[in-house]
Give the backbone structure.
Amino acid sequence: MAKYDYDLFVIGAGSGGVRAGRLAAQLGKRVAVAEESKPGGTCVVRGCVPKKFLVYGAEFGGAIKDAQKYGWTVGKTSFDWRSLRDSIQAEVNRLSGIYATMLEKNGADLFKERAEIKDAHTVKLKDSGKTITAKTILIAVGGRPWMPDISGHEHAIMSDDAFLLDQLPERVLMIGGGYIACEFAGIFAGMDVEVTQVYRGGRLLNGFDAEVRDAVLDVQRNNGIDVRFNASPTEIKKTKGGYIVTFDNGTKIGTDLVFMATGRKPHTTGLGLENAGVKLADNGAIKVDKYSKTSVNNIYAVGDVTDRVNLTPVAIREGAAFVETVFKNNKTAYDHDNIASAVFTRPPIGVVGMTEHDARQKHGEALTVYTTSFRPMKNVLADKSQRCFMKLITVGEDEKVIGIHIVGDDSPEIIQALGICVKAGLTKTDFDETCAVHPTLAEEIVTLKPREPNKTTIVS
């Protein structure tokens, strides 16, 4: 008889966990996966997928207005929040079902309940109380939104709640300056909600290139969002007509909905990791080596729970690398450098490689920076002031491209291809020798000129 019930037990059926479980099952391994929510994880159920649908929904209002400038006669229009919400949830359920089916068709067992670790080889299913043993355990439980423990915080919602609102409020107070806050502020604004965004820092999108951060502020304000800085909430009070939020600078803001987008943390609380001796970082993230192995030899972790690069495609690659390492005797470490990513503001952001600040910290003055800012052709007839910003950072005499940053329509689609260029180590000459596709927004990336010296902006 086998020493363990399973060769692999995966805790978490998000993108990373499902990929690892499916690949291991295809190799003939005995695999089980436990998920306390819907299969699909943050991305499918309460993140990337439903959020992108909301962004699409928010864009149609502006597109209808723009259409009139392009000769279209537009009649009476209205927006039905519940119709969009329910359509999105139907698609979420369909995709979640596909994730479950993928596991089951490949021979993996799916337990639709929470699993907690009892020791290095044992997990316990919380609802049924069933105890299961496994030779290898993979933790892929992702992260969860977090909010400060201020007076009245129970009156606020977080990103997980935003997809299921019963009705659309007239006013939203968005607290936070990260990508989730900026994205949802743009979503609500596109649905004609009055949005105030308050951030404790002095610039939105901490960690992004400084000029991108400035461009995003213009994006938010062009969308009618009232953006305020250097204020943290201290109290939320429910009133007859909504809520009053007090900030540490004495400001009080009235609103119908308080949305806390103040960060995410690894979902490790109550997982029982201490029972097996798995070491955690100060923020609760699971410490792993380059092969995703924890401090316990047979326990691994992938995805947001490790707080390395918190992106769905990265979790998928880490899950695949885990299977190569553990079950195919091919030690594989996923390369986390030069990963392209996007922020779905309106218009969105696409970035890959280093910020100018980080590049100067590493390479000093051996940089050449190219930038442009222009009004896209689409916005001219629509009489919109929103501009597109592009930035390309090179290093050395051969001008190897080490960073590209775009704020503008279709930038996530563009940055996917440009990510290949940065990953491959191409140079500015390679870009210059590539013929432009005209007329497109993307053509500007191969016609960039050096930024004027007096316009250097490298403050992070």
User: Anything to note?
Assistant: The radius of gyration is 24 Å. The chain has three domains: 6-144+265-327, 153-262, 341-450.
